Protein backbone atom coordinates (compact mmCIF):
# COMPACT_ATOMS: atom_id res chain seq x y z
CA UNK A 1 0.00 0.00 0.00
CA UNK A 2 1.59 3.28 -1.08
CA UNK A 3 0.63 6.87 -0.60
CA UNK A 4 0.28 9.30 -3.48
CA UNK A 5 0.20 13.05 -2.89
CA UNK A 6 -2.96 14.19 -4.65
CA UNK A 7 -3.37 17.84 -5.51
CA UNK A 8 -7.14 17.76 -6.01
CA UNK A 9 -8.98 16.06 -3.21
CA UNK A 10 -11.76 18.62 -2.71
CA UNK A 11 -14.53 20.20 -4.80
CA UNK A 12 -14.51 23.80 -5.93
CA UNK A 13 -18.21 24.37 -6.47
CA UNK A 14 -17.91 28.13 -6.12
CA UNK A 15 -15.39 30.59 -7.57
CA UNK A 16 -14.09 32.52 -4.59
CA UNK A 17 -12.09 34.78 -6.92
CA UNK A 18 -15.44 36.10 -8.20
CA UNK A 19 -16.09 38.25 -5.14
CA UNK A 20 -19.10 40.02 -6.70
CA UNK A 21 -20.65 36.66 -7.57
CA UNK A 22 -20.16 35.35 -4.03
CA UNK A 23 -21.65 38.52 -2.56
CA UNK A 24 -24.63 38.29 -4.93
CA UNK A 25 -25.43 34.82 -3.59
CA UNK A 26 -25.32 36.12 -0.04
CA UNK A 27 -27.48 39.09 -0.96
CA UNK A 28 -30.02 36.76 -2.57
CA UNK A 29 -30.35 34.88 0.73
CA UNK A 30 -30.85 38.15 2.59
CA UNK A 31 -33.65 39.16 0.23
CA UNK A 32 -35.62 35.89 0.21
CA UNK A 33 -39.01 36.51 1.90
CA UNK A 34 -39.93 34.17 4.77
CA UNK A 35 -43.70 33.99 5.13
CA UNK A 36 -44.17 30.61 6.83
CA UNK A 37 -42.37 27.97 8.86
CA UNK A 38 -41.83 25.97 5.67
CA UNK A 39 -40.26 29.05 4.05
CA UNK A 40 -37.88 29.33 7.01
CA UNK A 41 -36.84 25.69 6.77
CA UNK A 42 -36.32 25.99 2.99
CA UNK A 43 -34.29 29.14 3.57
CA UNK A 44 -32.11 27.28 6.08
CA UNK A 45 -31.48 24.56 3.47
CA UNK A 46 -30.44 27.16 0.86
CA UNK A 47 -28.18 28.89 3.35
CA UNK A 48 -26.59 25.58 4.31
CA UNK A 49 -25.98 24.71 0.65
CA UNK A 50 -24.08 27.93 0.03
CA UNK A 51 -22.07 27.66 3.24
CA UNK A 52 -21.05 24.08 2.42
CA UNK A 53 -19.66 25.14 -0.97
CA UNK A 54 -17.73 28.05 0.52
CA UNK A 55 -16.46 25.95 3.44
CA UNK A 56 -15.08 23.17 1.23
CA UNK A 57 -13.28 25.59 -1.10
CA UNK A 58 -11.74 27.57 1.78
CA UNK A 59 -10.76 24.40 3.63
CA UNK A 60 -9.13 22.98 0.52
CA UNK A 61 -7.16 26.18 -0.04
CA UNK A 62 -6.04 26.22 3.59
CA UNK A 63 -4.87 22.61 3.49
CA UNK A 64 -3.06 23.30 0.22
CA UNK A 65 -1.19 26.10 1.97
CA UNK A 66 -0.33 23.96 5.00
CA UNK A 67 0.99 21.28 2.63
CA UNK A 68 3.28 23.74 0.87
CA UNK A 69 3.80 27.09 2.58
CA UNK A 70 6.56 27.96 0.09
CA UNK A 71 4.36 27.96 -3.04
CA UNK A 72 3.55 31.61 -3.94
CA UNK A 73 0.43 30.79 -5.99
CA UNK A 74 -1.04 28.60 -3.25
CA UNK A 75 -0.25 31.26 -0.67
CA UNK A 76 -1.88 33.93 -2.85
CA UNK A 77 -5.11 31.91 -3.08
CA UNK A 78 -5.12 31.24 0.65
CA UNK A 79 -4.49 34.90 1.53
CA UNK A 80 -7.28 35.98 -0.84
CA UNK A 81 -9.64 33.76 1.13
CA UNK A 82 -8.46 35.18 4.44
CA UNK A 83 -8.21 38.83 3.47
CA UNK A 84 -11.17 39.15 1.08
CA UNK A 85 -13.61 36.25 1.45
CA UNK A 86 -13.37 35.86 5.23
CA UNK A 87 -14.40 39.48 5.96
CA UNK A 88 -17.24 39.14 3.45
CA UNK A 89 -18.30 35.89 5.09
CA UNK A 90 -18.29 37.43 8.57
CA UNK A 91 -20.29 40.42 7.36
CA UNK A 92 -23.00 38.32 5.73
CA UNK A 93 -23.04 35.63 8.41
CA UNK A 94 -23.97 38.41 10.82
CA UNK A 95 -26.78 39.56 8.50
CA UNK A 96 -28.03 35.99 8.04
CA UNK A 97 -27.92 35.34 11.80
CA UNK A 98 -29.93 38.51 12.36
CA UNK A 99 -32.49 37.53 9.70
CA UNK A 100 -32.85 34.10 11.30
CA UNK A 101 -33.15 35.41 14.87
CA UNK A 102 -35.71 38.04 13.88
CA UNK A 103 -37.99 35.60 12.05
CA UNK A 104 -41.49 35.53 13.51
CA UNK A 105 -41.56 31.76 12.84
CA UNK A 106 -38.55 30.96 15.02
CA UNK A 107 -40.64 29.55 17.86
CA UNK A 108 -42.30 27.07 15.49
CA UNK A 109 -39.02 25.30 14.70
CA UNK A 110 -38.52 21.83 16.19
CA UNK A 111 -36.50 22.40 19.38
CA UNK A 112 -34.75 19.01 19.12
CA UNK A 113 -33.55 19.75 15.60
CA UNK A 114 -32.95 23.48 15.70
CA UNK A 115 -32.57 24.36 19.41
CA UNK A 116 -28.77 24.26 19.45
CA UNK A 117 -28.61 26.29 16.20
CA UNK A 118 -30.91 28.89 17.69
CA UNK A 119 -28.86 29.27 20.86
CA UNK A 120 -25.60 29.52 18.93
CA UNK A 121 -26.93 32.06 16.44
CA UNK A 122 -28.48 34.18 19.16
CA UNK A 123 -25.08 34.18 20.86
CA UNK A 124 -23.37 35.21 17.61
CA UNK A 125 -25.79 38.10 17.15
CA UNK A 126 -25.02 39.21 20.68
CA UNK A 127 -21.25 39.08 20.05
CA UNK A 128 -21.05 40.54 16.55
CA UNK A 129 -19.41 43.93 16.13
CA UNK A 130 -18.52 45.19 12.66
CA UNK A 131 -15.39 46.86 14.01
CA UNK A 132 -14.08 43.41 14.95
CA UNK A 133 -13.99 42.15 11.35
CA UNK A 134 -10.59 43.74 10.50
CA UNK A 135 -9.27 42.48 13.84
CA UNK A 136 -10.26 38.91 12.94
CA UNK A 137 -8.58 39.32 9.55
CA UNK A 138 -5.38 40.54 11.23
CA UNK A 139 -5.58 37.63 13.66
CA UNK A 140 -5.63 35.21 10.71
CA UNK A 141 -2.69 36.99 9.07
CA UNK A 142 -0.63 36.52 12.23
CA UNK A 143 -1.64 32.86 12.34
CA UNK A 144 -0.48 32.48 8.73
CA UNK A 145 2.83 34.13 9.57
CA UNK A 146 3.31 31.61 12.39
CA UNK A 147 2.71 28.71 9.98
CA UNK A 148 5.22 30.13 7.51
CA UNK A 149 7.90 30.55 10.17
CA UNK A 150 7.38 27.08 11.61
CA UNK A 151 7.02 25.47 8.17
CA UNK A 152 10.38 26.90 7.12
CA UNK A 153 12.19 25.87 10.30
CA UNK A 154 15.08 23.44 9.77
CA UNK A 155 17.84 22.18 12.04
CA UNK A 156 21.34 21.02 11.18
CA UNK A 157 21.75 17.44 12.30
CA UNK A 158 25.13 15.75 11.87
CA UNK A 159 26.08 18.13 9.09
CA UNK A 160 22.80 17.78 7.20
CA UNK A 161 19.84 20.19 7.09
CA UNK A 162 16.78 18.37 8.44
CA UNK A 163 13.08 19.32 8.71
CA UNK A 164 12.14 20.34 12.23
CA UNK A 165 9.86 17.28 12.82
CA UNK A 166 12.85 14.98 12.22
CA UNK A 167 14.77 16.52 15.12
CA UNK A 168 11.64 16.41 17.31
CA UNK A 169 11.38 12.67 16.58
CA UNK A 170 14.88 12.19 18.02
CA UNK A 171 13.45 12.91 21.47
CA UNK A 172 12.21 9.31 21.29
CA UNK A 173 15.71 7.92 20.72
CA UNK A 174 16.82 5.23 23.20
CA UNK A 175 20.28 6.87 23.48
CA UNK A 176 20.03 9.56 26.15
CA UNK A 177 22.84 11.60 24.59
CA UNK A 178 20.91 11.77 21.29
CA UNK A 179 17.76 12.89 23.12
CA UNK A 180 19.64 15.59 24.99
CA UNK A 181 21.26 16.82 21.77
CA UNK A 182 17.85 16.99 20.07
CA UNK A 183 16.35 18.84 23.03
CA UNK A 184 19.03 21.54 22.94
CA UNK A 185 18.87 21.90 19.14
CA UNK A 186 15.09 22.35 19.31
CA UNK A 187 15.44 25.03 21.99
CA UNK A 188 18.18 26.72 19.96
CA UNK A 189 15.76 26.82 17.00
CA UNK A 190 13.07 28.28 19.26
CA UNK A 191 15.52 30.89 20.50
CA UNK A 192 16.25 31.88 16.91
CA UNK A 193 12.58 32.58 16.14
CA UNK A 194 11.65 33.79 19.63
CA UNK A 195 11.64 37.54 18.82
CA UNK A 196 9.20 36.94 15.94
CA UNK A 197 7.04 34.67 18.09
CA UNK A 198 6.95 37.19 20.94
CA UNK A 199 5.89 39.90 18.51
CA UNK A 200 3.13 37.66 17.09
CA UNK A 201 1.84 36.67 20.52
CA UNK A 202 2.02 40.21 21.90
CA UNK A 203 -0.07 41.46 19.00
CA UNK A 204 -2.52 38.55 19.20
CA UNK A 205 -3.16 39.13 22.90
CA UNK A 206 -3.90 42.81 22.28
CA UNK A 207 -6.06 42.07 19.23
CA UNK A 208 -8.09 39.49 21.10
CA UNK A 209 -8.43 41.72 24.13
CA UNK A 210 -9.78 44.49 21.91
CA UNK A 211 -12.22 42.07 20.24
CA UNK A 212 -13.56 41.24 23.70
CA UNK A 213 -13.79 44.88 24.79
CA UNK A 214 -15.62 45.79 21.58
CA UNK A 215 -18.17 43.06 22.32
CA UNK A 216 -18.74 44.31 25.88
CA UNK A 217 -16.56 41.86 27.82
CA UNK A 218 -13.84 42.56 30.37
CA UNK A 219 -11.40 40.11 28.78
CA UNK A 220 -10.97 37.65 25.93
CA UNK A 221 -11.35 34.63 28.23
CA UNK A 222 -14.91 35.59 29.16
CA UNK A 223 -15.69 36.44 25.53
CA UNK A 224 -14.43 33.01 24.44
CA UNK A 225 -16.67 31.10 26.84
CA UNK A 226 -19.70 32.75 25.23
CA UNK A 227 -18.42 32.46 21.65
CA UNK A 228 -17.73 28.74 22.17
CA UNK A 229 -21.15 28.25 23.82
CA UNK A 230 -19.48 26.20 26.49
CA UNK A 231 -21.68 23.94 28.56
CA UNK A 232 -19.62 24.57 31.69
CA UNK A 233 -18.30 27.62 33.52
CA UNK A 234 -14.98 29.36 34.11
CA UNK A 235 -15.14 28.18 37.71
CA UNK A 236 -15.63 24.59 36.53
CA UNK A 237 -12.32 24.94 34.68
CA UNK A 238 -10.50 26.28 37.71
CA UNK A 239 -11.94 23.43 39.79
CA UNK A 240 -10.74 20.95 37.15
CA UNK A 241 -7.24 22.47 37.26
CA UNK A 242 -7.19 21.95 41.05
CA UNK A 243 -8.65 18.43 40.91
CA UNK A 244 -5.96 17.30 38.49
CA UNK A 245 -3.20 18.92 40.52
CA UNK A 246 -4.53 17.20 43.64
CA UNK A 247 -5.17 13.70 42.28
CA UNK A 248 -3.30 13.24 39.00
CA UNK A 249 0.05 14.92 39.60
CA UNK A 250 0.95 12.75 42.66
CA UNK A 251 0.21 9.66 40.55
CA UNK A 252 2.26 11.15 37.72
CA UNK A 253 5.18 11.59 40.12
CA UNK A 254 4.94 7.93 41.15
CA UNK A 255 4.88 6.82 37.52
CA UNK A 256 7.82 9.08 36.72
CA UNK A 257 9.83 7.10 39.26
CA UNK A 258 8.86 3.89 37.43
CA UNK A 259 9.94 5.31 34.07
CA UNK A 260 13.12 6.75 35.58
CA UNK A 261 13.99 3.30 36.95
CA UNK A 262 13.35 1.66 33.57
CA UNK A 263 15.58 4.24 31.90
CA UNK A 264 18.31 3.67 34.48
CA UNK A 265 18.84 7.38 35.17
CA UNK A 266 19.45 9.13 38.48
CA UNK A 267 17.76 12.39 37.51
CA UNK A 268 14.69 12.78 35.30
CA UNK A 269 15.57 15.54 32.83
CA UNK A 270 13.30 17.13 30.17
CA UNK A 271 14.80 14.93 27.43
CA UNK A 272 13.78 11.88 29.47
CA UNK A 273 10.15 12.98 29.56
CA UNK A 274 8.99 11.62 26.20
CA UNK A 275 8.55 8.18 24.59
CA UNK A 276 11.96 6.55 24.67
CA UNK A 277 11.56 3.08 26.21
CA UNK A 278 11.15 1.95 22.59
CA UNK A 279 14.37 1.02 20.80
CA UNK A 280 13.37 1.86 17.24
CA UNK A 281 10.82 3.95 15.37
CA UNK A 282 7.71 1.91 14.54
CA UNK A 283 8.20 2.35 10.77
CA UNK A 284 10.67 3.83 8.31
CA UNK A 285 8.43 4.54 5.31
CA UNK A 286 4.94 6.05 5.21
CA UNK A 287 3.73 3.02 3.23
CA UNK A 288 4.56 0.76 6.21
CA UNK A 289 2.70 3.11 8.53
CA UNK A 290 -0.37 2.96 6.29
CA UNK A 291 -0.30 -0.84 6.03
CA UNK A 292 0.08 -1.32 9.78
CA UNK A 293 -2.59 1.17 10.84
CA UNK A 294 -5.02 -0.35 8.32
CA UNK A 295 -4.45 -3.74 9.98
CA UNK A 296 -4.97 -2.31 13.48
CA UNK A 297 -8.17 -0.56 12.49
CA UNK A 298 -9.50 -3.67 10.74
CA UNK A 299 -8.91 -5.85 13.80
CA UNK A 300 -10.98 -3.38 15.82
CA UNK A 301 -13.85 -2.87 13.37
CA UNK A 302 -14.15 -3.40 9.61
CA UNK A 303 -15.81 0.00 9.17
CA UNK A 304 -12.72 1.71 10.59
CA UNK A 305 -10.32 0.09 8.11
CA UNK A 306 -12.78 0.53 5.25
CA UNK A 307 -12.78 4.31 5.77
CA UNK A 308 -9.00 4.40 6.16
CA UNK A 309 -8.37 2.45 2.96
CA UNK A 310 -10.86 4.67 1.13
CA UNK A 311 -8.98 7.77 2.29
CA UNK A 312 -5.68 6.34 1.05
CA UNK A 313 -7.19 5.48 -2.32
CA UNK A 314 -8.66 8.97 -2.76
CA UNK A 315 -5.62 10.97 -1.64
CA UNK A 316 -7.17 12.14 1.62
CA UNK A 317 -4.04 11.77 3.74
CA UNK A 318 -0.77 13.71 3.65
CA UNK A 319 1.67 12.20 6.14
CA UNK A 320 5.41 12.47 6.66
CA UNK A 321 7.73 15.43 6.98
CA UNK A 322 9.15 17.77 4.37
CA UNK A 323 10.49 21.29 4.20
CA UNK A 324 7.88 24.00 3.70
CA UNK A 325 5.12 21.94 5.28
CA UNK A 326 3.25 23.50 8.21
CA UNK A 327 3.79 21.87 11.64
CA UNK A 328 1.41 19.60 13.51
CA UNK A 329 -1.44 17.37 12.49
CA UNK A 330 -5.19 17.64 12.11
CA UNK A 331 -8.29 16.17 10.52
CA UNK A 332 -10.71 18.42 8.66
CA UNK A 333 -14.08 17.89 7.02
CA UNK A 334 -14.79 18.45 3.34
CA UNK A 335 -18.56 18.98 3.59
CA UNK A 336 -19.41 19.19 -0.12
CA UNK A 337 -17.53 15.97 -0.88
CA UNK A 338 -18.66 14.17 2.26
CA UNK A 339 -15.04 13.35 3.02
CA UNK A 340 -12.41 14.01 5.67
CA UNK A 341 -8.74 14.88 5.14
CA UNK A 342 -5.90 14.02 7.53
CA UNK A 343 -2.76 16.17 7.53
CA UNK A 344 0.35 15.37 9.56
CA UNK A 345 3.93 16.61 9.52
CA UNK A 346 5.88 14.10 11.61
CA UNK A 347 8.98 11.98 11.16
CA UNK A 348 8.83 8.25 12.04
CA UNK A 349 8.25 7.97 15.78
CA UNK A 350 5.89 6.52 18.34
CA UNK A 351 4.12 9.88 18.48
CA UNK A 352 3.56 10.00 14.72
CA UNK A 353 1.91 6.56 14.84
CA UNK A 354 -0.39 7.60 17.67
CA UNK A 355 -1.11 10.94 16.00
CA UNK A 356 -2.40 9.16 12.88
CA UNK A 357 -4.61 6.86 14.97
CA UNK A 358 -5.86 9.93 16.86
CA UNK A 359 -6.77 11.75 13.65
CA UNK A 360 -8.49 8.63 12.32
CA UNK A 361 -10.78 8.81 15.34
CA UNK A 362 -11.81 12.23 14.07
CA UNK A 363 -12.15 10.92 10.52
CA UNK A 364 -14.40 8.01 11.52
CA UNK A 365 -16.50 10.43 13.56
CA UNK A 366 -16.81 12.67 10.49
CA UNK A 367 -17.81 9.85 8.16
CA UNK A 368 -20.40 8.48 10.59
CA UNK A 369 -21.88 11.93 11.02
CA UNK A 370 -22.09 12.46 7.27
CA UNK A 371 -23.70 9.06 6.63
CA UNK A 372 -26.28 9.56 9.40
CA UNK A 373 -27.02 13.28 9.20
CA UNK A 374 -25.21 14.86 6.25
CA UNK A 375 -22.46 17.50 6.61
CA UNK A 376 -21.88 18.79 10.10
CA UNK A 377 -22.42 22.48 10.66
CA UNK A 378 -20.15 24.80 12.61
CA UNK A 379 -22.53 25.15 15.52
CA UNK A 380 -22.50 21.37 16.09
CA UNK A 381 -18.72 21.04 16.23
CA UNK A 382 -17.84 20.97 19.90
CA UNK A 383 -14.27 19.95 20.66
CA UNK A 384 -15.27 18.16 23.87
CA UNK A 385 -17.19 15.73 21.64
CA UNK A 386 -14.73 15.50 18.75
CA UNK A 387 -11.77 14.71 21.01
CA UNK A 388 -13.67 11.91 22.75
CA UNK A 389 -13.52 9.88 19.55
CA UNK A 390 -9.89 10.69 18.72
CA UNK A 391 -8.66 9.77 22.21
CA UNK A 392 -11.10 6.88 22.23
CA UNK A 393 -9.67 5.46 18.99
CA UNK A 394 -6.16 5.54 20.49
CA UNK A 395 -7.28 3.48 23.48
CA UNK A 396 -9.41 1.04 21.43
CA UNK A 397 -6.25 0.21 19.46
CA UNK A 398 -4.04 -0.08 22.55
CA UNK A 399 -4.11 -3.90 22.44
CA UNK A 400 -3.01 -3.93 18.78
CA UNK A 401 0.26 -1.99 19.07
CA UNK A 402 2.05 -5.32 18.53
CA UNK A 403 1.42 -4.62 14.84
CA UNK A 404 4.44 -2.28 15.10
CA UNK A 405 6.13 -3.42 18.32
CA UNK A 406 6.80 -7.15 18.87
CA UNK A 407 7.20 -9.01 22.17
CA UNK A 408 8.59 -6.92 25.07
CA UNK A 409 8.49 -3.79 22.93
CA UNK A 410 4.72 -4.27 22.75
CA UNK A 411 4.41 -3.84 26.52
CA UNK A 412 6.60 -0.76 26.43
CA UNK A 413 4.49 0.70 23.63
CA UNK A 414 1.36 0.14 25.71
CA UNK A 415 3.03 1.82 28.68
CA UNK A 416 3.95 4.78 26.50
CA UNK A 417 0.40 5.15 25.15
CA UNK A 418 -1.07 4.99 28.66
CA UNK A 419 1.57 7.45 29.81
CA UNK A 420 0.39 9.70 26.97
CA UNK A 421 -3.17 9.33 28.30
CA UNK A 422 -1.86 10.53 31.65
CA UNK A 423 -0.16 13.52 30.06
CA UNK A 424 -3.38 14.39 28.23
CA UNK A 425 -5.06 14.79 31.61
CA UNK A 426 -2.66 17.51 32.74
CA UNK A 427 -0.74 18.79 29.68
CA UNK A 428 -3.58 20.51 27.81
CA UNK A 429 -5.08 21.54 31.14
CA UNK A 430 -1.88 23.38 32.09
CA UNK A 431 -2.04 25.05 28.66
CA UNK A 432 -5.59 26.10 29.44
CA UNK A 433 -4.50 27.63 32.74
CA UNK A 434 -1.67 29.45 30.92
CA UNK A 435 -4.22 31.03 28.57
CA UNK A 436 -6.55 32.00 31.42
CA UNK A 437 -3.59 33.93 32.84
CA UNK A 438 -2.53 35.46 29.49
CA UNK A 439 -5.93 36.84 28.57
CA UNK A 440 -6.94 38.05 32.02
CA UNK A 441 -3.56 39.81 32.23
CA UNK A 442 -3.40 41.20 28.68
CA UNK A 443 -0.70 43.77 29.40
CA UNK A 444 1.91 41.23 30.49
CA UNK A 445 5.43 41.33 29.06
CA UNK A 446 7.13 38.60 27.04
CA UNK A 447 9.41 37.91 30.02
CA UNK A 448 6.42 37.55 32.38
CA UNK A 449 4.76 35.20 29.87
CA UNK A 450 7.79 32.90 29.79
CA UNK A 451 8.05 32.94 33.58
CA UNK A 452 4.36 32.04 33.95
CA UNK A 453 4.68 29.23 31.42
CA UNK A 454 7.63 27.81 33.38
CA UNK A 455 5.76 28.11 36.68
CA UNK A 456 2.65 26.30 35.37
CA UNK A 457 4.76 23.64 33.63
CA UNK A 458 6.50 22.85 36.94
CA UNK A 459 3.16 22.55 38.71
CA UNK A 460 1.94 19.97 36.19
CA UNK A 461 3.87 17.94 33.59
CA UNK A 462 7.37 18.90 34.68
CA UNK A 463 6.63 18.45 38.38
CA UNK A 464 8.85 15.35 38.69
CA UNK A 465 11.45 16.64 36.20
CA UNK A 466 14.77 18.25 37.11
CA UNK A 467 14.82 21.52 35.13
CA UNK A 468 17.90 23.00 36.84
CA UNK A 469 19.63 25.41 34.47
CA UNK A 470 16.88 25.07 31.88
CA UNK A 471 14.38 27.56 33.24
CA UNK A 472 14.68 29.83 30.20
CA UNK A 473 14.44 26.92 27.72
CA UNK A 474 11.30 25.59 29.38
CA UNK A 475 9.78 29.05 29.66
CA UNK A 476 9.98 29.73 25.94
CA UNK A 477 8.71 26.29 24.92
CA UNK A 478 5.20 27.63 24.38
CA UNK A 479 6.30 28.81 20.92
CA UNK A 480 6.11 25.20 19.68
CA UNK A 481 2.42 24.81 20.56
CA UNK A 482 0.37 26.05 17.62
CA UNK A 483 -2.86 26.03 19.66
CA UNK A 484 -1.80 29.16 21.55
CA UNK A 485 -1.47 31.01 18.26
CA UNK A 486 -4.09 29.47 15.99
CA UNK A 487 -6.70 27.90 18.30
CA UNK A 488 -6.93 29.95 21.51
CA UNK A 489 -8.57 28.15 24.44
CA UNK A 490 -8.66 24.86 22.51
CA UNK A 491 -6.90 22.91 25.26
CA UNK A 492 -9.07 21.87 28.16
CA UNK A 493 -11.30 19.91 25.76
CA UNK A 494 -8.48 17.35 25.38
CA UNK A 495 -8.36 16.76 29.13
CA UNK A 496 -12.15 16.62 29.54
CA UNK A 497 -12.52 14.15 26.68
CA UNK A 498 -9.67 11.97 27.95
CA UNK A 499 -11.72 11.25 31.06
CA UNK A 500 -14.47 10.00 28.74
CA UNK A 501 -12.00 8.00 26.63
CA UNK A 502 -10.63 6.27 29.73
CA UNK A 503 -14.17 5.20 30.59
CA UNK A 504 -14.40 3.83 27.05
CA UNK A 505 -11.19 1.82 27.67
CA UNK A 506 -12.66 0.52 30.92
CA UNK A 507 -15.76 -0.60 29.00
CA UNK A 508 -13.59 -2.15 26.25
CA UNK A 509 -11.69 -4.25 28.79
CA UNK A 510 -15.01 -5.67 29.97
CA UNK A 511 -16.67 -6.15 26.56
CA UNK A 512 -14.70 -5.09 23.45
CA UNK A 513 -17.54 -5.58 20.96
CA UNK A 514 -20.03 -3.60 23.05
CA UNK A 515 -17.55 -0.75 23.59
CA UNK A 516 -16.79 -0.46 19.86
CA UNK A 517 -20.49 -0.41 19.01
CA UNK A 518 -21.05 2.31 21.63
CA UNK A 519 -18.16 4.29 20.12
CA UNK A 520 -19.81 4.11 16.68
CA UNK A 521 -23.23 4.93 18.07
CA UNK A 522 -21.96 8.04 19.83
CA UNK A 523 -19.83 9.12 16.87
CA UNK A 524 -22.91 8.96 14.66
CA UNK A 525 -25.32 10.43 17.21
CA UNK A 526 -27.46 13.52 16.64
CA UNK A 527 -25.10 16.38 17.42
CA UNK A 528 -27.97 18.73 18.18
CA UNK A 529 -28.00 17.07 21.60
CA UNK A 530 -26.06 18.32 24.61
CA UNK A 531 -22.51 17.10 25.17
CA UNK A 532 -23.71 15.04 28.13
CA UNK A 533 -26.33 13.29 25.98
CA UNK A 534 -23.79 12.43 23.26
CA UNK A 535 -21.39 11.05 25.87
CA UNK A 536 -24.22 8.96 27.29
CA UNK A 537 -24.88 7.47 23.85
CA UNK A 538 -21.18 6.51 23.78
CA UNK A 539 -21.59 4.68 27.10
CA UNK A 540 -19.60 7.18 29.18
CA UNK A 541 -20.26 10.20 31.41
CA UNK A 542 -19.51 13.86 30.72
CA UNK A 543 -18.03 14.41 34.16
CA UNK A 544 -14.85 16.14 35.24
CA UNK A 545 -15.73 16.57 38.91
CA UNK A 546 -13.24 15.68 41.64
CA UNK A 547 -14.59 12.11 42.17
CA UNK A 548 -14.45 11.44 38.41
CA UNK A 549 -10.88 12.76 38.11
CA UNK A 550 -9.75 10.72 41.12
CA UNK A 551 -11.41 7.50 39.88
CA UNK A 552 -10.04 7.70 36.34
CA UNK A 553 -6.57 8.62 37.60
CA UNK A 554 -6.57 5.55 39.85
CA UNK A 555 -7.84 3.37 36.99
CA UNK A 556 -5.14 4.60 34.61
CA UNK A 557 -2.33 4.19 37.12
CA UNK A 558 -3.55 0.67 37.89
CA UNK A 559 -3.64 -0.33 34.21
CA UNK A 560 -0.08 0.96 33.66
CA UNK A 561 1.22 -0.86 36.73
CA UNK A 562 -0.52 -4.11 35.69
CA UNK A 563 1.20 -4.36 32.29
CA UNK A 564 3.72 -7.18 32.59
From TrEMBL:
One of its GO terms (molecular function) is hydrolase activity. The keyword Hydrolase applies. Residues 171-528 form the Peptidase M3A/M3B catalytic domain. It is an enzyme of class 3 (hydrolase). Its cofactor is Zn(2+). Belongs to the peptidase M3 family. This is M3 family oligoendopeptidase. It comes from Chungangia koreensis.
